[in-house]
From TrEMBL, chain A:
Entry-linked InterPro entries: AAA+_ATPase (IPR003593), ABC_transporter-like_ATP-bd (IPR003439), ABC_transporter-like_CS (IPR017871), P-loop_NTPase (IPR027417), PstB-like (IPR005670)
Cellular localization per UniProt: Cell inner membrane
Main location: membrane
NCBIfam families: 3a0107s01c2
Membrane topology term: Peripheral membrane protein
Keywords: ATP-binding, Cell membrane, Membrane, Nucleotide-binding, Phosphate transport, Translocase, Transport
The protein, known as: Phosphate ABC transporter ATP-binding protein, PhoT family
PROSITE patterns documented for this protein: ABC_TRANSPORTER_1, ABC_TRANSPORTER_2
GO biological process: phosphate ion transmembrane transport
Ranges where the ABC transporter domain occurs: 18-260
Cleavable signal peptide: none
Function: Part of the ABC transporter complex PstSACB involved in phosphate import. Responsible for energy coupling to the transport system.
From TrEMBL, chain B:
PANTHER family: PHOSPHATE TRANSPORT SYSTEM PERMEASE PROTEIN PSTA, PHOSPHATE TRANSPORT SYSTEM PERMEASE PROTEIN PSTA-RELATED
BP terms from Gene Ontology: phosphate ion transmembrane transport
One GO MF term: phosphate transmembrane transporter activity
Keyword Chaperone on entry: no
Bilayer topology: Multi-pass membrane protein
Transmembrane segments: 36-57, 219-240, 260-282, 288-310, 331-353, 406-425
Short name of any one Pfam family annotated for the protein: BPD_transp_1
GO cellular component, one term: plasma membrane
Protein name, UniProt field: Phosphate transport system permease protein PstA
Amino acid sequence: MNDIRKIERDVNMANTKISARSVDVFYGETHAIRNVSVDIADRTVTAFIGPSGCGKSTFLRCLNRMNDTIETCRVTGDIELDGRDINARSVDAVQLRAQVGMVFQKPNPFPKSIYDNVAYGPKIHGMARNKAELDEIVEKALRRGAIWDEVKDRLHAPGTGLSGGQQQRLCIARAVATEPEVLLMDEPCSALDPIATAQVEELIDELRQDYAVVIVTHSMQQAARVSQKTAFFHLGDLVEYDDTDRIFTNPRDQRTESYITGRIG
Amino acid sequence: MTDVTNRPPGRTPNRASELVAASLKRRHAKQARLKWLGMGAIGIAFLMLFILVGSLVSTGWQAFTQTHVTLDVYVDPDEIEAEDLPRGDFDDVLVDSLASMLPEVGTEDRATARSVAGILSNGAQFMLRDLVVANPSLIGETITMTVPVSDPYDQLNKGLIERATPEALRRVKDNEIAWFDTLAEQGAVSKPFNWALFTNADSRFPELAGLKGALVGSFWALLVCFLISFPLGIGAAIYLEEFAPKNKLSDFIEVNINNLAAVPSVVFGLLALAVFINWFGLPRSVPFVGGLTLALMTMPTIIIATRAALKAVPPSIREAAMGLGASRQQVVFQHVLPPAMPGILTGTIIGLAQALGETAPLLLIGMNAFITSAASGPFDSATALPTQIFIWADSPERGFVSRTSAAILVLLGFLVAMNAVAIFLRQKFQRKW
Ligand SMILES: Nc1ncnc2c1ncn2[C@@H]1O[C@H](COP(=O)(O)OP(=O)(O)OP(=O)(O)O)[C@@H](O)[C@H]1O
Ligand SMILES: [Mg+2]
C-alpha cells in the first residue's frame, strides 16, 4: 500500500507547478518570511504547517499576489507559475488570481445571496454562456464544497446568514467555481465539524486529480491524511520540506520533530 | 450577592466573584447616572426643538390663511371697453361694487373712494382684469368673485390689530372697522387656505406674496448642486480611498478636504462672486451660479461621508473579490460601493439639506433680489427659500411677520422630508442583503 503511493508520488513530482526561490516578505520593518525556496508540484496536495504567526498565511498569499493589496507589505525573490514569473510586469494579477484560487483563513462571503456568491467568479470570467450553464456551475461547486444539501432550498438567501462553518464551505465552493489550476486553502477546516471536515478532505483529494492544492493546517492528522508533501515553517523560516510520510515519521530537523510531537507551537 | 451566599459548601471562596459583587453596586449606580444624563440631554434637545417649532407655528400659522371678500361686480361697459381693455378702470368697478354693499358710503368723494379701495388687495383689480381679458363677453354682466383683502384688514380679521388700541395708533380707522364689520355681517368675508403662499411669487404686498419663486429657485439651485457635487464628490472619494497611493500628497489632500468642509459658507460666496460672476462672467442672481456655489460647499461633505462609508466596508470583502480575480474597478463597483451606498446617500442628503438652508453665499451672488415671477430655468433670476426668508424678515409690513415664520416652517418641512428620504433610502438599500 505504502509502496504504491510512493510510486504515484514520484510520477507527480515530475512537474513543478509553482517554484519559489529566495522569497522574503516584509511588513514594514517586520521580516515575516526569510529566504524561502519551495517547489509546489502539480496534482499534489502540499501542506504548510507550523506554529501560529510563523508566516504560513503570508507565504501562501505570495503565491497569488494577495500581498499586493497590503500597503506595507513588500515581497522579494522569484515565484514562477508554470515557469513564468508571477511578479513580472507582463503578468496581470487579475489573470493570476483566476488561475490561483484562494480560500481565506476567515470565512468572507459577499453580502449577497448564496447563489450570487458562487456565481460571481464564473460571471466575471465569462465562464457561462447562459443562465442554465451558470446554474449548473453553481450547483456543481456547491456540491464540491459539501454544502449543496444544506443550501439547495435557499440559494437566494444571503450568504452572510449561514453559520461560520457553512460560510467557510460556501467560500470553498466559490473558489472552486472558477476552476483554478492551483487552490490555496488557508485553514479551510478550522471552523468545521468532523463530518464537514471529512467532506472537505474528500474534495481536496478529488481536486488533486487535476489541480495543485496548497493547504495550511494546524491539524497534524489532517496534514498527514490529505497531503503528499509537507512544509514546516518556524519563525519565518522554511525549516523542512519533504514527503509527508517522511516529515511525520522521520523528520530531519529537531524543530520539526518537536512541533509534530507537540512540544513547540 | 446571592452568588456569594449560595456558593456550594466546601468550596474555597472565589476572590474574583467577591470583588465583582462588591463593585457591582458602584457600577450599577454609574450606569444609572449615565442613563439619566443621556435622557436629560435628549429632553433638553427636545425642549429646544419644541420651543423653536412652537414659536414659529404660533406666529406662522396665521399666514396659512388669508382673508378674502366676496363681491358681486358689475362689469360696467362705461368704465371698461372691450377695445381698450388694458386701460379699463377695473379699480373703480370694484370700488363701486364694494360701496354698494356699504349702505351709507358714496364714492363721489375721492378720499372716501380711496379708503374703500384700500379694503381690497392691490392685486384684486388685476384678477378682475385677467378674468375679463380671458372672457370679454363678461362686459356688461355681473360676476361674483372672491378677492383677497389688503394686509391691514387681513390683520384686523385675524385679530392681530387690536380694536382696543386708540384709533391714532391703529392702521385701520374706526369707520373702516365699521365697513369691514358690515361686510362681515353680510357674510362676504371668508378666510380660506392661503394658496397664494405657494402659487404666487414675491410681491410688495404681503397678501399677494408667495414662495413659488423661492421654491423654484431653490429647486434649480439644489438640482445643479446635486448634479455637480454628487458625481464629483463620489468620484473623488473613490479615487482617494481605493486607488490613490497612500503618501504625503494624499495626506495633504485629505487634510485640505477636511479643512474645506469647515470653511464658513460666506467665504464660498465671496469665492463664487469673484470666480463665477466677475471672472467667468456668469449672470448674477441665477440658480445656476447658486447651485455651483452650494456644490463647492457640499462636495467636501459628500467626499468625507463617502470615504467614511467606503472605509467601513470590511477589507475581507475586497480580499474575497480580489482573490477570485476581480479587477480593482470590479471590486469597487460590485462589492464596495453597494454596501457603502446607504452611508453615501445619507451623507449626500445631509449635505443637500445644509445647502438648502444656506443663506450667506446666496446673498453674495445676488439671489436676494426682488423678483415677482418664478424662474423658468436655472439661468433665470430667482431667490431661494432662505434668501426669501431673509427678504421677508427685512420687510416692514406687518403681514410679512407671519409670512416669514410660515416660510421658515416650509423650509423646515422640506428639511424633514429630505431626512425622511435619507432614512427611507438607507433602509431600502440595507434590506437588499
Ligand atoms: N497585514 C500585516 N501587517 C503587519 N504584519 C503582519 C500582517 N499580516 C501578518 N503579519 C505578521 O507576519 C507574521 C506572520 O503572519 P501570518 O499571518 O503569516 O502567520 P500564520 O503562520 O498564518 O499564523 P496563524 O497560524 O496564526 O494563521 C506575524 O508575525 C504577523 O504579525
Ligand atoms: Mg494564518
